[in-house]
Design goal:
heterotrimer; A alpha/beta; B alpha+beta; C mainly alpha; A: alpha/beta; Flavocytochrome C3, Chain A, domain 1; Methane Monooxygenase Hydroxylase, Chain G, domain 1; globular; C: mainly alpha; two-stranded antiparallel sheet; 4 strands; 56% helix; 6% strand
Amino acid sequence: MSSKHEFSRLKTDILIIGAGGAGLRAAISAVESGCSVIIATKSLLGKAHTVMAEGGIAASLGNVDPQDNWKVHFKDTYEEGVFLGNWKMIEILAKEAADRVYELERYGALFDRTPDGKIMQRAFGAHTYRRLCYVGDKTGLELIRTLQDKVAHSNAMVLDEFVVSKIITVNNRVAGAFGISMRDGTFKLIECKSLVMASGGLGRLFKVTSNSWESTGDGLALAYRAGAVLMDMEMVQFHPTGMVWPPAVRGLLVTEGVRGEGGLLYNKEGERFMLRYSPQKKELDARDVVARSIYREILAGRGTEHGGVYLDITHRGAKYIKEKLPSMYMQYKEFAGIDISKEKMEVAPTTHYHMGGIRVDPDTNMTNIEGLFAAGEAACGVHGANRLGGNSLVDLLVFGRRAGISASEYAKKVKQMKFDDSIVNEEIDRIISFTENPTSTNPYILIDQLRETMSKYVGILRSAEDLQKALDTITGLKGKARNVGILGGLRFNPGLIACLELNNLLLSAELVVRGAMERKESRGAHFRNDYPNLSDEWHKNILFTYNEGKNDITFQDVPELPDYLKDLFKEGQA
Amino acid sequence: MKEVTIRIRRSEPSVSSDVHYDEFKVPVGEGMVVLDAVHYIQQNMDQTLAVRWNCKAARCGSCSAEINGRPKLMCKTRIDSVGDKITINPIKAYPVVKDLVTDVSHNYEIAKKIPPFTPKEGLSAPFKMFQIDVTRSKEFRTCIECFLCQDVCHVIREHHSNYFGPKHMVKVAALDMHPIDAIDRSELLHGEGGVGYCDITKCCQNVCPEDIRITDNAIIPEKERIVDHAYDPIGILIKKVKNRRW
Amino acid sequence: MVETIKNSDPSLTLFPPEFKEFNWRLWAFIFVIILAGGALFLYPVGIYKGYVDPFYSPTVLVIPVVALFRISCYAYRKDYYRHVFRHPLACIDGIRFDDNRKGYSGEKTFFGLNNYHRYFLYAGIALLPFFYYDFYVSLTYIPGEFVLRLGSLLIIINAIFLTLWTLSCHAFRHLTGGHIDCFSCKAAGNGRKKFFNGQSALNRYHEQFAFISLIIVIGVDLYIRGLMAGLPLDFTFLKFAI
């Protein structure tokens, strides 16, 4: 069958997929270097998941604790990632963080201030010093608005509500991307010399999640199908505290700031159980530890009736709470009808972040496909097996910028790859086949089943048995997914987007599960009941390569620290 | 389980001029918000229903609509707060794309016209700024760009005058009140921005889901700044004399 | 197509917020103008036993200035734009009654004159001390004696609310700090910011002060007219020689 549908063509030097922090920051560097830029985003400009970041940006400015420096930041990040992170990327991150924060200020961001007029910094879980530069509890919003404004006044073109459905490569080199504009239902082919994938994570794989609708693993699946290598897909971070009740808001994030401000965790019996799991750091231990402890309490039957534990901040008093945690106060008031200054919150772990992703070169952020770059949550390497709070916003800025620079350098060197329109026509046929299809399977139902399965079997505590169950379900769903379709046409049809996302979700889910099955140890966010200990043997990254419909899994040793970085740890121990 | 009736305005102007309301009976669980009901309809009753949403946590400002005539975020409006019969309209100030989705791109065009942050000459980051200087601008920075204020503003909704709209007044105020910004954008507002069309009836302030006091803290202060350079004969005289001396 | 909403929203059937700010404030204002205008021209009253009628303080000639200060006040502007011109009457769909076929120029043309509010504010501030002076006069109108009467209390309450209304003005807010972007760059910045914050807190209640002060002015005026007409309302609380 041949397509009669038309598509329009756009040409640009650099195409950026995703308009969150990383995408926008990449766009700014790319425009500055004189390249033409198109930003494609699934949502409206400025709605990206980045706006939901609350706590702050980690950068060792030393404004509050002058002892802080990039070395300590490096050490915290590497240790907390349980030695799985790429040292080169972490070093870049820790060294460039301050510049990126000051740059943001130069673009117009307004951080909270210290009494002597510098950027204020707050304490956060597992950061040695007070390191998080923040804007109340809306740091992500400020970051996005600032970058968004910068982009709006540049000549970058923004294609909003545009869903990319395929990346086109020729001889392992990027040639372009193809997708559908939701607003008018038209197809667009974008020819580009380099492409930056800044599409975020896969949080919506799980039923209980703090992630917004974008995080469906689209970018990972697109890049993977185009031949990019993915890495450490099993590393999914669960935030210890998400809302539990009412069911409509289950998973909504309760910021770590609550515990930072003195919030205490209790089980149903009124026991402060963190004293038992972590006598030293208690409630403020790393996210994976706290999340697992809460989960174990719930499993042991000491949870609340809605399946959570209590988080109590009432002892701080109403005035303090409203001043320091206004969003949390509002959130509970609006959604749960609970006054957190008088009542305890019910919380349980929620899916929060994906440490794994597209493997990139630490210096250039280029993937194994020439001209394809990745940054932000879509890329892998900085956070290892567990991400520190505040490190993701700085990751977006540092590697967004670097990806933008590398992408423009590359675009200036090469010529546009030529390809045949038949690829495009095939893709159009594929998309159209979903529409006006009354006999098909409802994609929403499959997505729902997948999300439920993932939350049930691939959550905080994993085992070979559970993972196998998940894999079986995914295989079954993959079969059913061949028959999905929806009513309605191409224009603003959320069902159609769900069909496209379903395939990305299934692929990402399969890789998460396979990775989790392979990694026979417990490290950071990945915990196996049947292999509860950290294993030196597994000081390895798991790599996934798409090979004609199959997933090839290989392993590589985590790059060893150079001596000058090893010394940091010796000093620390001494 | 309890049921509510949800009526949703359906249309797709680029295809046909037909406009009608579809009625759905939706089971309601505890704490459900209007957006949950819309999702339920979309997933189980009518997949073609178009709605824009992102975070479902009142942080992104995507799911703006008019619920029983009131501009609200669907994700922040609990069903038990609006009754058993709920009518949902798209926001009326902007052209409908399909069903509950409207074309708000006009706002992004206006955003380009507002001069960006420009630090005072001779300053370089890290800037020295104090908390007392950042608090005013910070209120406006909580804007989630839901465009509910634009929707409820009669200048835009009924009269289509070339006023930028409350959302952009908030943006301008955020930049103008930045302690080290060098530009005064009130002249732009007096001219192209059309702030003179605003008659301070405060509907924008009433609907803001972030409780930004748009009229009191953004629009009126900007109007007063305009008074400084356009309606203050003494001030203008002083300025002229000063300029002559230079 | 306008969709009218009926009985679907519980808050709408009982007391929609829009109706809580029903025209009463505006009609009260108009009533007062008619009443006061009539009284002023038909039954001029100056001073009764040391009580100065607020309309005559310091002289009836300032009334146009005071009236213009009221008319150009942001609180009253909102009222008459909404309830006289219906731009719009209310915020929610269905009862907005803003006719899109009618021309609309907002404050671009004639009502642009409201931008001169600040000058009437200057005049208003200049008049404030007279009301306190009237209080003093009412206490000491008998040479050698101090007298505290009901009327004196009314006069001071009136003075206080006029002060609150005047000093909570938006134009005044511009002067106290609204025009400043960087307080710390100014001399005594901290103090000025505190003053600005305090004034801003008052400003939140500007609409309420505008209405209450108006009612009190009329009340005092009526009280004094009542006394003049011979009503036995002049209660004395305290009296001693000084």
